[in-house]
Design a protein that fits this description.
Blueprint lengths: L5 H10 L5 E6 L5 H12 L3 E5 L9 H17 L4 E6 L7 H15 L3 E8 H12 L4 E6 L4 H8 L3 H7 L12 H22 L7 H13 L7 H5 L8 H13 L3 E4 L6 H5 L4 E4 L2 H6 L5 H6 L1 H18 L1 H4 L2 E7 L2 E9 L2 E7 L9 H9 L3 E5 L6 H5 L9
Parallel strand pairs: 1-4, 1-5, 2-3, 3-4, 10-11
Antiparallel strand pairs: 6-7, 8-9, 9-10
Length: 395
């Protein structure tokens, strides 16, 4: 069975003396639970696997109940160490305070109970870890599956990856695109919105959030202002509502709005967002074009290519600590601008979507980037870029 590289990191940390809670975060269907099960089976450590979906009424007292079960196993069996795994932890109210109390109690009593928590993306990180568990945890974040992973695990070629994206569970259905789309919508998109966003955040207009997601996916790799978007949505409210909902979708690793690069923050925040899905499969699932029709249309295929490149960049931005922007002035534009500390990189994607412009030249004269890349030509193909270890870009 294929193992993601984060599995070895988790295994190594669990084998260390008890120091920190290990937190596994990532979007729906990226393999969090599967990876943890692989690690647990290999470690052969006595353990208890639980999911917060079993908790009645999202009551955090359930955490104390399962924690006590783990403690009793240690005592009754005289275990030297024990591993407690809690999945979907973010679904419980005030979960972080309950976890803190149990963890600190074990620390005071020298109980060698190691803990792994699993949750959905930044919804987990933002609302619990930094507030109550500061200094008590280490984070392992799973991004959407890369081209290298999908090729090694399932044999996808570059064209298949660009269109169908990196969702392992959907791979067996690729030959039946109607069935594949239904699976994407029913098993991935709807649960991500319903279970990971609406149950953990206060959303007054859930129908509007869903409309925003679908429209944003259809505009992936394109610019669309909130004011223009209002005219295409029902019961749209105002631009502040849309901006807040887009932030929630971003935190769930579904859809984001890139800001325009500028030297001052005010211009960045006021810029028209460039929509970008975190997985190109989300674009395809919300588009009527088949794989064949998209691939045979240079203009349309260019949209998918730029989306795949953009998704690869934004998925690794947190781990590698860089920011992703776009840049545009009149008819000149640069598809992606990366800012890492004081280093600046401009990336232009060459595809059938549009002809190459003078954007790189104009951007170079104005901002003097450290690195310029043209992706999609013979010198540096799309496949080469999507196979690249992005950390090397900043060495």
């Amino acid at each position: 069975m294929f193992k993601r590289q984060q599995a070895s990191i988790l295994s190594s940390r669990i084998n260390e003396p008890r120091r920190f809670i290990q937190v596994i975060a990532g979007a729906r269907q990226v393999g969090k639970s599967t990876m943890v099960k692989q690690v647990v089976e290999e470690l052969k450590m006595p353990h208890l696997l639980s999911t917060a979906e079993e908790a009645p009424d999202k009551n955090p007292s359930w955490i104390h109940y399962v924690w006590q079960q783990a403690r009793q196993s240690i005592q009754l069996n005289n275990y030297r160490e024990f591993l407690l795994v809690i999945d979907e932890i973010h679904k419980l109210d005030n979960w972080s305070e309950a976890v803190k109390a149990e963890w600190d109690a074990d620390t005071m009593r020298d109980v060698n109970l190691k803990v792994i928590l699993l949750g959905s993306s930044r919804l987990l990180i933002k609302d619990g870890l930094t507030e109550s568990l500061a200094g008590r945890y280490e984070l392992i974040e799973l991004e959407h599956w890369s081209f290298n992973e999908m090729r090694e695990a399932f044999g996808l070629n570059i064209e298949q990856y660009i269109y169908f994206g990196g969702y392992p569970g959907a791979v067996p259905l690729m030959d039946d695109e109607k069935r594949w789309r239904k699976y994407m919508r029913d098993a991935i998109i709807e649960p991500a919105i319903t279970k990971d966003v609406l149950t953990t955040k206060r959303v007054l207009k859930p129908a509007l959030l869903r409309q925003l997601f679908v429209l944003g996916c259809s505009y992936s790799a394109e610019l669309l202002s909130f004011n223009k978007m209002l005219g295409q949505l029902q019961d749209a409210g105002n631009t502040s509502t849309l901006a807040n909902y887009l932030q929630l979708l971003d935190e769930s690793k579904l859809l984001c709005g890139l800001q325009q690069y500028a030297t001052d923050d005010a211009r960045k925040y006021k810029s028209v967002p460039k929509y970008m899905v975190y997985n190109s499969g989300l674009l395809s699932a919300n588009n009527s074009l088949s794989f064949k029709d998209a691939y045979l249309s240079p203009k349309e295929w260019g949209k998918w290519i730029e989306t795949a490149v953009g998704a690869y960049l934004i998925n690794h931005a947190d781990r590698l600590e860089y920011k992703v922007y776009y840049w545009r002035h009149n008819n000149d534009e640069v598809d992606f601008v990366l800012q890492h500390s004081r280093r600046l990189m401009a990336i232009e994607v060459k595809s059938g979507k549009r002809q190459m412009n003078q954007g790189l030249s104009v951007f170079r004269e104005q901002f003097h980037p450290d690195i310029e890349l043209v992706v999609g030509g013979e010198a540096f193909t799309i496949e080469q870029f999507l196979s690249l270890d992005l950390e090397r870009l900043f060495m």
